[in-house]
Amino acid sequence: MLKIEGLHANVEGNEILKGLDMTVNPGEVHAIMGPNGAGKSTLGYVLSAREEYEVTAGKVSFKEQDLLELEVDERARAGVFLAFQYPVEIPGVSNMEFLKESVNAVRKERGQEALTAAEFLKRAKEACKQVNLPLDFLKRGVNEGFSGGEKKRNEIMQMIMLEPTLCILDESDSGLDIDALKVVADGVNSQRSDDRSFIVITHYQRLLDFIKPDFVHILADGKIVKSGGPELAKEVEASGYAWLENHEEASA
Ligand code: ADP
Ligand code: MG
Ligand code: MG
Fold first, then answer.
1. From ligand 3's centre to the CA of 171, what distance in Å?
2. What residue stretches are annotated with the ABC transporter domain (predicted)?
């Protein structure tokens, strides 16, 4: 589904990703952990086509397509959900209108009929209920004064509504409370399926108490330095990242 090969990326002229490789198959949940400043969010931003993040080498293919060649909206229509893409505040456009347009654009790309207003509303109500967001929230302007927790709920609600093939989430905000973490975890767990994959970038081991990943990768200094199963997250929880220094000495 997703194949990242030898990915190098610069931010403000500094090389942050230094040859990252990763493969995600359908139905898999991959967690990315690693020390602060390792490049985890940078990876998310590169996959999200954020402007300041410049790919200097490597390939990213999603299904048969070159993901890096696709614009942000093309990535979304191709079935990639990027939780980073908060739309800029668009005066006069409500969350509801924005989401309905996005959902129908994605459906069109898949050859599905557009949702009627009634069907959209029905699904939106269910999704709001699942993330514990009042439906009234959808009537607010896009990005109008959201708290951290509301942003997170809104993001997961969007993920549920868009039915993506690949979801990329970066749980990097230290401000997230346990309820918000659980919303993220419940959202991921409820959407897991044989044909949908997740990359969950996390600065919290705790999130992985609620989401059981199939694979855990440690990203350090711009590369994946270790991959394993869920037990790797437990190891990190117990012993931190001190072993990385030995690893670097060993490989130097
Ligand atoms: P992580 O998410 O693993 O903590 P980041 O990807 O946020 O790490 O950051 C990796 C490195 O890239 C850090 O040294 C950080 O300072 C730098 N960096 C990230 N984004 C920017 C930016 N927009 N401008 C300058 N430096 C950045
Ligand atoms: Mg950081
Ligand atoms: Mg980060």
1. 8
2. 2-246
